[in-house]
Amino acid sequence: MAHRIQNFEALAATDLRTDALAIAEAGYAALDIGEALARTLRIEGDVLSTPDAEYPLAKRKIFFVGVGKCAFAGAEALEKLLGDRLSGGIAFDVSPLDNRVVTKIETLVGTHPLPSEANEAATARIMDFLTGRTENDLVIMLISGGGSALLCAHDAPMTCTDESALWNALTAHGATIQEINTVRKHTSKARGGGLAFAAYPAEVVSLIVSDVPGNDLSFIASGPTILDTSTVADAEAILAAYGITSANILSETPKDASRFTRVHNRLFLSSRDALDAMREEATNRGYATEVADDRFTGEAREVGRGIAERLRDAAPRTALLYAGESTVTIMENAGAGGRNQELALASLEYLNEGEVILPFSSDGRDNSDYAGAIADAETLAHAQEKQLPVADYLDRHRSYDFFTATGDALSTGYTGTNVSDLIIALKK
What we know:
The chain is about 35% helix and about 20% strand. It is of the alpha/beta class. Strand 4 (about 60-65), helix 4 (about 70-80) and strand 5 form a beta-alpha-beta unit. The longest helix has 16 residues, at about 15-30. The two termini are about 25 Å apart. The model has no long low-confidence stretch (mean pLDDT about 95).
C-alpha cells in the first residue's frame, strides 16, 4: 500500500506509532485537492453540479483561476475533470509545479509570505485575464492560503517594500490573521473582492480552502472574491493600535454590490474535513476519540506541554485531536525548525510510556522540508542514545536539527493543500 507519509515504514516502530501515522494519513486523504474536487464537482450532460447548485454549460466558455498553496493541485484536477470543456486559465502558486501535469492552464510561481515584483506581475496577468470575461462565461476559482502574499496589485505610491514593512510590523506586534488581512485588503486591488470585481459580468464559482480559524471566508487569502465590508478607516485603526504609520498608502476595496451578484462563494475544504476523517480512523482503531480543540492557538511549547499533561490524565485507548496554529517566539540567531517540530520537542519530556503526540502541517512544510515530528518514548530513547539534550535544543529553537538527528521527523513532501496545523495525541 502506498503511503502519503513518505517515511511511514521507518517511523512505524510501534503499534501506537502506526496508529498515529495511519490517523494522520486519513487527515491528509480528506484534504487531497483532486479527490475533494471529484467529490464536489460533477458533470452530467451539459450541467455542472455542486452539492448545493447547478450551472448550465451549453454554449458557455469555462475558465479556471487558482491562487494560493492549492492552485497547482487544483489546476491538474480541473483539467482532468473538465477536459475539452475547459477554455483556459491561470494557476498562481507558492511552489513549483514539480510532477503535476498541467497543459491548458498557465502556471505562475510567486513568493511567500512577503510580496514581490514577481507577484505583482503575475497578479496583473490574472487581472487582465479576468477583465473582459462575458456574461455567458463561467469562471471557477480555487482560493487558498498563501493567496494574500501572492495577490499584489498596488496603487501608487504603495510598493512591495511598503507592504513588506507593514506585514513585518504587524507580525512582530502579534497581530491576528484577521487584523493582518484587513490591512492587506487595502493594499492590493486584487484582494478584498478584487478578483470577483474584475471578472464581472462573468459567473464566478469560488471554492475556498480555509486556513483561517473560524472559516470566515472574507479573511481567507484576504477575500479576493468576497464583497468586503471593511474600510480604509478600519485598516488604519488597526495600524494605529499597534503604533504603525500607514503613510496614507492604503486604498479602498470595491463596494459596488451589483458587481458581486453572480459570485457564488463556497467553503470547499477546512480543518474540519481532516478532523472528521481522523476521528473516524481513530475510532475504527479502537480509541475513544475527541476533537479537543479545532482552533488552538498559543506558544508552541506551551501547547505541547498542555496536550501532554491532558494525555497523561486521560483513560487508556484515548485519542485527542486538534486543529489550529501555534506560534514560536524566537530569539536572534535561533536555529531551524517550525512550530510543529517545536511543539513535539516541547512535549517530549512530559510524555509517559504508551503515549504519543504527532503535530504536523497540512501543506507538508513546517517551516522546513519536514511536515512535523513524532514525540514518544522511542524519540526520547533516540535522543538519549545520541546524547541530545532536549531542553538545550528547545531553548535554542533547533527542533529541525534535533529531529533530523533522532530520525523522528515526518516527511510528506509538499502536499498541494493547506488548512491549519493538526495534532494527534494517543494513549495506549
